[in-house]
From TrEMBL:
GO process terms (BP): cholesterol catabolic process
Organism: Streptomyces pactum
UniProt xrefs under InterPro entries: Cyt_P450 (IPR001128), Cyt_P450_B (IPR002397), Cyt_P450_CS (IPR017972), Cyt_P450_sf (IPR036396)
Protein name according to UniProt: Cytochrome P450
Coiled coil: none
A Pfam family reported for this protein in Swiss-Prot or TrEMBL: p450
Family assignment from sequence similarity: Belongs to the cytochrome P450 family.
The entry's keywords: Heme, Iron, Metal-binding, Monooxygenase, Oxidoreductase
Gene Ontology MF terms in the entry: cholest-4-en-3-one 26-monooxygenase activity; heme binding; iron ion binding; steroid hydroxylase activity
Gene3D superfamilies noted in UniProt: Cytochrome P450
Length: 420
């Protein structure tokens, strides 16, 4: 997705806005649409040709209200537009598609292994993935950062989940197929077939992984789910499989696009890159601005459980609402100069990781991995230059790229062979 609102003609016709269309997000200017909606129709109803409808929520305050209030807005009927009005078989089983109290109990359990303290204790797991990504930036040749970044989270979540490394490349592809089935770069047959294949293979895969453990929990996230007790009872096989799916998807489809979007922003703002290099204490703020700037999880959905007023609209019970996080993170009522990439932005209360009870459970892991990566890049790479055309991902769920050729210019003495 393009990070700027500068549509060529500058005009947005609100009657024909189609935020459902995956190609608006790859070829169009969603930021221009969101800006117009925030100003003129902050809670905006869209009807699809097949009659299904959803509301788009674009202002920060409304977004936080919807995400925070699980009583008025449930997650159990599904949270992605791709499954609008079709129901969610994982509802009440997968953490992301559960409401309290089930959600709270599952969440407390996973928090124990994904808290900042817990992931910091395992930070060594991140060293190899970081070096694998940085290495091709040190040989002076052109490389596709989108491809490198796509492997990055798989490289650590694979270890955290105890999955064999030989399976990682296929898992990386399947997770992108699940969120961008319309993108030709990842299609296997038609879009519906691509989606079905991705879901089927991923669920089969985790089912087999679980069966292979034969009831004996391993020292990894899958083992942790096997030992989790809700009201004294273990999770059933299906629930563990759904939550494995959610963990791998959560990591794989988001993190890469903050990497590429942040690098793009730093190429566009060489002063900012020089500032972080000169002062490593700016790394954390730079990552936060990268998260706000890229907002890779573009929307999450909820269904209203009763009639609710939001801004000046009434949303009827049962209606679907898509909360556009990328829009909330550019809300001019909350962020000064929202279209300026500012690594010293304070405060920076972005909601790229969501808000309220479902706030990303992997946020500490994502932050640590991004900080370690940026620190390593700053230490070894003098600058990164564009080396070809950027291609954007066709997905209404993930804001990202499929191709981003770049060339790294290493610092004196930084050489791939010295990394291992
Ligand atoms: C830059 C990286 C990431 C971004 C931008 C991101 C974004 C988000 C957002 C916006 C939500 C809220 C969903 C909702 O409100 O319905 C969420 C939830 C979640 N994320 Fe992440 N995520 C990232 C990394 C990760 C990682 C590394 C993992 C795996 C360890 C992960 C796993 C999850 C899970 C399981 C949930 C559901 C949490 C719940 O329902 O309580 N995410 N993420």
């Amino acid at each position: 997705m393009r990070m700027s609102p500068n549509a060529p003609d500058g005009q947005v016709d609100l009657d024909s806005v189609d935020l459902f269309d995956p190609f608006l997000h790859s070829e169009g200017h969603p930021h221009a649409v969101w800006r117009a909606l925030r100003a003129e129709a902050p809670v905006h109803r869209q009807q699809l040709p097949d009659g299904r409808q959803f509301w788009s929520v674009t202002r920060y305050a409304d977004a936080c209200r919807v995400l925070r209030d699980h009583e008025d807005f449930t997650s159990e009927r599904g949270t992605l537009l791709s499954a609008l009005d079709v129901g969610d078989p994982a509802g009440g089983k997968m953490m992301a598609a559960s409401d309290p109290p089930h959600h709270t109990m599952l969440r407390e359990s996973l928090n124990r292994v994904l808290s900042a303290r817990a992931v910091n204790a395992r930070r060594n797991t991140l060293l190899k993935p970081v070096d694998r990504l940085v290495e091709p930036l040190l040989n002076g040749e052109s490389t596709d950062l989108a491809v490198l970044a796509a492997d990055f989270p798989m490289d650590f979540i694979g270890t955290f989940m105890g999955l064999p490394e030989s399976d990682w490349p296929r898992l990386t592809k399947l997770t992108t197929m699940a969120v961008a089935p319309h993108d030709p770069a990842f299609q296997e047959g038609s879009a519906p077939l691509t989606l079905v294949t991705a879901h089927h293979e991923l669920f089969e895969y985790f089912s087999e992984q679980l069966a292979a453990r034969d009831g004996t929990p391993t020292d990894d996230l899958i083992g942790h789910l096997m030992q989790t007790r809700i009201d004294g009872k273990p999770l059933d096989h299906e629930s563990i499989v759904y939550n494995c799916y959610s963990l791998i998807l959560g990591a794989n489809v988001t993190t890469p696009h903050t990497v590429t979007g942040l690098v793009q922003a730093l190429m566009d703002h060489p002063d900012a890159y020089r500032a972080v290099v000169a002062d490593p204490s700016l790394v954390a703020g730079c990552v936060e601005e990268g998260l706000r700037w890229t907002s890779p999880a573009s929307h999450f959905m909820r269904y209203a459980t009763q009639d609710v007023r939001l801004s000046d609209s009434t949303v009827k019970a049962g209606s679907a609402l898509a909360v556009w996080l990328g829009s909330a993170n550019r809300d001019e009522d909350v962020f000064a100069d929202p279209y300026t990439f500012d690594i010293t932005r304070r405060p920076n209360r972005h909601i790229a990781f969501g808000f309220g009870p479902h706030y990303c459970v992997g946020a500490a892991l994502a932050r640590l991995s991004l900080r370690m990566l940026l620190e390593r890049v700053c230490a070894l790479v003098e600058r990164i230059e564009p080396a070809g055309e950027v291609r954007h991902l066709a997905s209404n769920f993930v804001a990202g790229v499929t191709s981003m050729p770049v060339r790294g210019v290493p610092r004196d003495g930084a050489h791939p062979a010295r990394l291992s």
